[in-house]
């Protein structure tokens, strides 16, 4: 697995400059004197920067990245490369647990010990001057297992990266949904027909960024 660059996962949620909340003409009876719709604006980037929820999301992603990177490092530093694919995936899952049970710890020891025995056996066979046919066959099997593990490790790394991307997308979608919901609520309260991202609206008479930040941090 290539080293995970967390900076990829803290990029701005809104890459386009469009978060437009179209809610229709709100509270027409209250604003009957108005001759047209009222427009508002919100600084989405500032909302994101000052959102406590987004800060927590970033911390969660960072912690997940560190956890997955640690698992891969443990696998690469150990003799897990001599285990079967099923065993490698099993021990990776166990390594990832924050609070492994006694049974988990016992299973980890069993897998690590089995891998260490195979690694030691391979070194011994490699140093055997005149190996028997059975020893040569065993050495080849261990070499094949070690070679196969490279693809297993790569597959695990890809799986971990996909998990990171999926979780980031999930958190970002929730953040977008929350922000839109708050903007819609505030817009209705203020009788705003349309709310533009301030990045595309240089000026509106109704700037609601502070209200949105206050609500989202509740």
Main features:
rod-shaped, 6 helices, mainly alpha, 218 residues
Set down the secondary structure blueprint.
Blueprint: E1 21-22, E2 39-42, H1 44-50, H2 52-77, H3 85-96, H4 102-126, H5 133-190, E3 194-197, E4 206-207, H6 209-216
Parallel strand pairs: 2-3, 2-4
Antiparallel strand pairs: 1-3
What would your notes on this structure say?
There is one protein chain. The chain has helices at residues 44-50, 52-77, 85-96, 102-126, 133-190, 209-216; strands at 21-22, 39-42, 194-197, 206-207. With 218 residues, it is mainly alpha-helical. It has one domain. A 4-stranded mixed β-sheet has the order 1-3-2-4. Mean pLDDT is 85; it is low at 1-32.
Main beta sheet? 4 strands, mixed
The total count of strands amounts to: 4
Please indicate the count of domains: 1
Given as residue ranges, the uncertain stretches (5+ residues, pLDDT < 50) are: 1-32
Strand order of the largest sheet: 1-3-2-4
Q: How many DSSP H or I helices?
A: 6
Brief rundown of the structure:
The chain has 218 residues and is mainly α.
């Amino acid at each position: 697995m290539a080293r995970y660059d967390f900076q990829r996962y803290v990029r701005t949620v809104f890459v386009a400059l469009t978060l437009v909340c179209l809610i229709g003409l709100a509270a027409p009876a209250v604003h009957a004197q108005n001759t047209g719709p009222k427009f508002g604006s919100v600084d989405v980037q500032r909302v994101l920067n000052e959102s406590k929820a987004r800060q927590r999301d970033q911390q969660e992603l960072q912690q997940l990245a560190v956890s997955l990177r640690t698992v891969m490092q443990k696998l690469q530093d150990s003799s897990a490369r001599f285990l079967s694919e099923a065993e490698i995936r099993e021990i990776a899952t166990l390594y990832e647990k924050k609070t492994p049970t006694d049974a988990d710890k016992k299973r980890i020891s069993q897998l690590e010990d089995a891998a260490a025995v195979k690694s030691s056996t391979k070194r011994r066979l490699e140093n055997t001057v005149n190996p028997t046919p059975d020893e040569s066959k065993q050495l080849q099997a261990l070499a094949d297992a070690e070679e196969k593990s490279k693809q297993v490790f790569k597959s695990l790394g890809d799986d971990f990266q996909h998990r990171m991307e999926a979780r980031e997308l999930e958190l970002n979608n929730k953040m977008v949904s929350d922000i839109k919901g708050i903007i819609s609520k505030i817009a209705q309260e203020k009788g705003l027909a349309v709310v533009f991202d301030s990045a595309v609206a240089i000026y509106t008479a109704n700037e609601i960024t502070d209200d949105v930040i206050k609500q989202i941090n509740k």
